[in-house]
Amino acid sequence: MIEPHVPAPPGAPPLWGGRAPLPVRPATGRFLVLACVFVCAACGLVYELELVALASYLMGDSVTQASVVLSVMVFAMGIGSLAAKRLRNLAAAGFCAVEATLALIGGCSAMALYAVFAWTGDWGGMWANGPRVLLVAFSLAIGLLIGAEVPLLMELIQRIRRQDAGGAVADLFAADYVGALVGGLAFPFLLLPFLGQLTSSLLTGAVNVVAGSALILGLFRRDLTRRARWLLLVANVTVLGVLAAAAVLVDDFERAARQAVYGDDVRVALQTDVQELVLTGGTPGHPLGLYLDGRLRVGGRDERRYHEALVHPAMYGSHARVLVLGGGDGLAAREVLTHPGVRRVDIVDLDAGLVRLARTDPALSRLGGHALGDPRVHVTIGDAFHVLRTTRPRTYDVVVADLPDPGITASTKLYSEEFYGLARRSLAPGGRLVVHAGPLTSRSRVYWTVDATMRAAGLRTTPYRVTGRDAGFAAGPDRTTARSRAPKDWGFLLASAGPRSPVLALDPRAPRPRTLGPEELAADASAAEATRVKGVPVSTLVHPRY
User: Fold this and answer.
1) Looking at the domain assignment, is residue 540 inside a domain?
2) Domain that holds residue 335
3) Which residues form the active site (predicted)?
4) Full-model pTM
């Protein structure tokens, strides 16, 4: 129950929590308060989503990052609500100060996270837990401030017209939830694709500070002393100026941060509907590097060894019809097309921007042998899981899964028992499936979980690995560019639906791979088998194990 306020004596100056008459009619005042609730709720959810998106990009494993952000933020909101009870008599000034602080912290959070990541390397040494500490700190601060909003707004709306607590809470929460819906939809469909992560967070902060200051300095200005009004005005203008200055400098900041992460030879940087693409090098003396969401996906020094090891063992046997899952860069298709007898190659990739880049960038296209321009190659933009579900049984002689590691949450379903069951159904009699299952030495349990999952789907597997990685090229979630910490091998699994495990060999009719020989392949297969982890569980769609 909110206690009645005792008015100040006649002629006394208004206090921060005073009850001066409003400059508008009560109905208009309630509408303005609820409109502010709507805007602030939308901004608050954008801050949450921004932290989740950036943390997933910088640290991988989006489920973990989302859980950390949302759980810490909800906890902090409860603490913030309790703390705001002490500001009830200063509701107007308190709310304005809270919104200015929230706009500054929330608006600058993405830039701060990215700056620390870019200029402190790969979080090794003293920064080993740096990203999570910073993520928790921002989640805690933003949650505290968001939690403080509702009690203060409750006091302000009761300030306009007294009503039962249940009705006031219903009004506030209705505006809050609708605002959260708008913010949640605006972030992925408007802000992120058109403005990017940094600019969208800065714009959200600007909207937040304008809404909060306009409500208090406009509608409740008579509740504030003259000094309080000037202090709040200066504070809000300062915050707005900081956000505006950051927005002006954001392009220069991104370029500097990108150079700190990728080096000085960045040639192409673009954000597609799916991911961020960065191309480096590709000139004499500077090997080409393709980064997808910050992970080195193609390293010019050692990509050929990876793709030869992935493709050539699977091509031993009939291979007229080949399906490449992933591989929008065209490099796996390049190796497939070296084999005589290939009549059709279907490539399925989720990112149309990557395919377009592989076709138009001279260096990347040249590295891929212009495979995407071959008339036998047909590209489909879509989800590999969905495409396999709609593929007719016994269609392909070879299926090449050139996919990110299961350590990236978005790829986990592509390493499930259900996925391998669909892949098995698509294979013609005697057909083979090859899967990149991540580095064997550093993540052996993940590798053998993939093996167990493929076997559970009715496939017979032959494990093998290839050592000699040079530049830390990673098809999976490893982000480091430090050679001392980069994985030293790639692990592969060759599978068939027949009664026996497939033979690990190279097609004698095809040109011999430049970096791979049959003797080395046999030795690496024996080394892979020696690392077997027994008793690992199977990964499914509803119970991922990676």
Assistant:
1) no
2) 302-529
3) 402 (proton acceptor)
4) 0.81
